[in-house]
């Protein structure tokens, strides 16, 4: 009986002990004990590693404690213990931080968007809805001040007073408008002397070695040819020409044709005056710039010469005496394959071999004079962007780079934005020096124009994979290259780009071709405004990129190459998937 009672008592005690062992307070005690052991072990291990440490003059040596690395508690216990609740709290905290950062980026991106797409009053109202004001929205580094840039360029594209040249000094942008430059007599004298002697035009970037031969001199001479001192002088003759508008003629072909007409005008000592430009005949081009090249770029000549030329169009005597001619006076052969101006000798004979095709640099081909001249002509025709074109680039920059720019700006501001931030008035260095810097883009940047579709009837067409093979070759030499500005009319190419996760692709948001339709049909489906605006944006982005991959068999790529070679990019090289069909 006693034995039975004893067993029952033991059983009750065992159950009670089991219940206590599984209770929460008991578990806490066990966890606390294990943590204490872990901390003690780490403490001893640290002493063993460092030998001794001091607290306020009290020195403690691990040698006196007899701790041995082999008996370190970290080998006996697993001290990586972390309660799951703590892990969850840390993850939640990180998620909240990322969400907060993303919200701030979106807020700043939206504020910048309003600046681009809304009127001044609409922008202010929209910012109020975001609980912001213009005073606490930081400047957007990727956007150009188009109004200021256009004003500066207009000043650089005309002669002041009775001067022989525009104010092309060694000072860039608005620096020579600084009060110190206009009030200092000695500075004014030297500035006047530089202008009188004829400095080089400001739209050329880089030295002579970084451009095609004679680029700066040629650009100056073309400007002087196109801007005579007196447009009504009896010896001033004109060539008035519409832009090509035959069905199937793309922007590249139109530019190539106008390059030929400019060559004829220079050879015959005429001022070229462009007339109707069908691609600018849309609602985006306002006022006098509608249906005119000036909607996108500065006019090829002065308004005085344009007025004089259009007056002479109605004069039978002017036609009879040859004071004025038109495109119809010249054959297609003269326009498209006519004689390159020889005023500067033959600088194309020593073009630097920086174009690679099939692994070899091209040192010579049969049309080097045409390549050199078209580069000069296109650079002149596109020397300054209009305010409208500048705005189109701003929209493209913002869509592609806006959120990256917002992250960079917010990182520099810290956590106080938008609560504790206000724009300060600009200093002189910001207004007169830094204002000349170009908008930020994520550099280095590779531009790639992939031409496929109906172009197969004119040149060898290669798959997108071949272009990417060339991109990998560039990155092998420049491993910090990660971004590609992708220009293409084919949706297939955009889809394929998504499989290259190790590259960042940027491209305009426009409907692209699906299937093999003609370029004329594709452009018609987009409408005149879109089918003109987005290619020009891609063209200018390609000229600003650090590297370029294209197909020289495409006139568009041929002209991009020319703009880069007169824009300080000669030594960046050019990797082409094929050669021009006329070489």
Automatic annotation (TrEMBL):
<feature type="transmembrane region" description="Helical">
    <location>
        <begin position="21"/>
        <end position="47"/>
    </location>
</feature>
<dbReference type="GO" id="GO:0006487">
    <property type="term" value="P:protein N-linked glycosylation"/>
</dbReference>
<keyword id="KW-0812">Transmembrane</keyword>
<protein>
    <recommendedName>
        <fullName>Alpha-(1,6)-fucosyltransferase</fullName>
    </recommendedName>
</protein>
<dbReference type="GO" id="GO:0046921">
    <property type="term" value="F:alpha-(1-&gt;6)-fucosyltransferase activity"/>
</dbReference>
<keyword id="KW-0472">Membrane</keyword>
<keyword id="KW-1133">Transmembrane helix</keyword>
